Amino acid sequence: MRYLFILIIAIPAADIGLLLFSGKAIGVWPTFLLIILTGVIGAYLAKREGLQTIRKAQAQLQNGQIPGEAVLDGICILAGGILLLLPGFITDISGFLMLFPPTRRVFKFLMINSLRKKIQRGNIKIIR
């Protein structure tokens, strides 16, 4: 529940505050153009990284491997692309971090640990 509060209220409020501060510091139009620019760059990067991930998953499947890491990459790329399309500097920074492969490893590590803990607690059951 606390994570939901942060996602729905705290992050957008901080983003709005930062946008207002930026509007006063550099002006409304430069702030507006910066928001548009990060959205366009984010869409391009998400498309490029997404296509690379799809190719990697297809290659793994052709070799008889399970594309587990490619799936995690895809989740990070999707989330990063969505965050970059949202207006705000905090969401843009988070989105860029999810799109770049070196920093994406941190998010994949966090997802794996979260899934592992849920499996150990019995919240997720794997049926064979």
Automatic annotation (TrEMBL):
Keywords: Membrane, Transmembrane, Transmembrane helix. The chain crosses the membrane at residues 26-46, 70-90. GO terms for cellular component: membrane. Pfam families: FxsA. PANTHER family: UPF0716 PROTEIN FXSA. This is Phage T7 F exclusion suppressor FxsA. It comes from Neobacillus vireti LMG 21834. The gene is fxsA.
